[in-house]
Design a protein that fits this description.
The chain is α/β, with parallel strands linked by helices. It has 6 helices and 10 strands. The chain has helices spanning 41-50, 87-99, 149-161, 182-190, 200-209, 238-253, and strands spanning 34-38, 54-60, 65-73, 76-82, 104-113, 122-131, 144-146, 167-174, 193-197, 213-223. The protein is globular and about 45 Å long. The model has no long low-confidence stretch (mean pLDDT 97).
Length: 255
């Protein structure tokens, strides 16, 4: 590995690291092949209750423990869990899920909209600007990372089949949501970004590095498309989040 001027650019393609998920007895094992990661713990709990899901494992850290549920959808067993917020947390979580047997992942959650889109509008990311740190440990340095085109098409086709309007577009993944300045928002919009969130580019990179299929569905929550900021009280959009998990489950079932 060649030393670079900036440490984050020193990508090592070696698949084996000093520390691995199977070094820990608490890492999940014997997980279903398919998994939905949702960034809303209350919505996950509600969907788990609706389907009579059981807790089959947990992902533990020094700050929290997250249950992994198993849902039966017409004979297909699907794991459902809450996603860690931010690129580094979700990178480690995907490592543990894949090590535990997961091979196909559909993530879902909210994003800030950079262009005028109504609250709840669905966006399928087909690329992400890598303005975070974790992805650079899983893919060679680049400005953007492309999503799996096959998975993007599968999700788009499934949403169309369900009669759900949606758009496909680029997202901006950043580690620092309090540094989404007017100038940066304008630049990302000029680059074609539709949304901003905190995990997509890292999830794409980690899943690809570990040989898992990955795709995501975002819903437009808060609004950064105009002057200033409008939360639109997106945290109250409970039905939108519950429905989003249902869509993700249906997408991953046939993936």
């Amino acid at each position: 590995m060649e030393q670079k001027e900036i440490a984050l650019l020193e990508f090592d393609k070696n698949l084996t690291a000093k520390m691995r998920p199977d070094d820990f007895s608490t890492s999940p094992k014997d997980l279903p092949e398919r998994c939905v990661i949702a960034f809303s713990h209350t919505s996950v709990e509600e969907i788990a209750k609706k389907y009579g899901a059981i807790v089959i494992s947990r992902i533990s850290s020094c700050t929290c423990t997250i249950p992994i549920y198993a849902i039966d959808m017409c004979g297909t067993r699907i794991a459902l869990t809450v996603g860690f917020l931010g690129s580094s947390g979700i990178a480690g979580q995907i490592e543990e899920l894949v090590s535990g047997g997961v091979k196909k992942i559909v993530a879902c959650g909210s994003a800030g909209t950079l262009t005028p889109n109504p609250l709840g509008a669905l966006v399928i990311p087909d690329a992400a600007v890598r303005d975070e740190g974790a992805s650079f440990h899983y893919a060679p340095p680049s400005y953007e990372i492309q999503a799996d085109a096959e998975v993007v098409k599968h999700i788009a086709d499934k949403l169309s089949e369900l009669g759900l309007p949606h758009i496909t577009g680029k997202t901006w993944t950043t580690d620092a949501f309090y540094r989404e300045t007017e100038e940066k928002v304008a630049l990302r919009r000029m680059q074609g970004c539709v949304t901003v969130e905190m995990e997509c580019s890292a999830m794409i990179a980690v899943a690809r590095f570990r040989g898992a299929k990955f795709g995501q569905i975002l819903y437009c929550g808060d609004d950064l498309s105009g002057d200033g900021y409008d939360s639109r009280n997106f945290h109250e959009a409970k039905e939108v989040r519950r429905n989003l998990i249902e869509y993700a489950l249906k997408c991953v079932k046939d993936l």
